[in-house]
Amino acid sequence: AELGCCCFCSILYIGNEKFISENPEKVRAFMRAVKKATDFVLADPHQAWKEYVDFKPVMNSQLNWKIFERSYAYFSQDLKNVERDWDKVTKYGQRLGVLSPDFKPNYTNEFLGWGLEPDSA
Fold first, then answer.
1. Could you read off the pLDDT of 1-31 as tens digits, one per residue?
2. Which domains are assigned to the chain?
3. Which residues form a coiled coil (predicted)?
4. For the chain, how far is it from start to end, CA to CA, in angstroms?
């Protein structure tokens, strides 16, 4: 994609430390909602697309369908991110200059309250 980095398929949800530390149950509830939506997309992608474009008609184009169709196959079923992808995201952000060279990542799977798949190689 001409991004200058190896591809990675993790979706990162970003929250500030204050909110996360003061609202862990809200963060868990948000992640449960994301998991429910992900499960729905993976179980019935055509229906998920139909409901999405019903809600957001401007997105209903052949190109957007192709993007959706080619993307959902890469969704992490358990939403877990792995160290390898976090390292890639951090290094890419540092290379772009949006993260300082001394940035200390604080990624976590702590708020995923269901069984997780083992890390892939």
1. 455 555 555 677 888 899 999 999 999 999 9
2. 23-96 (3.40.190.10)
3. none
4. 23
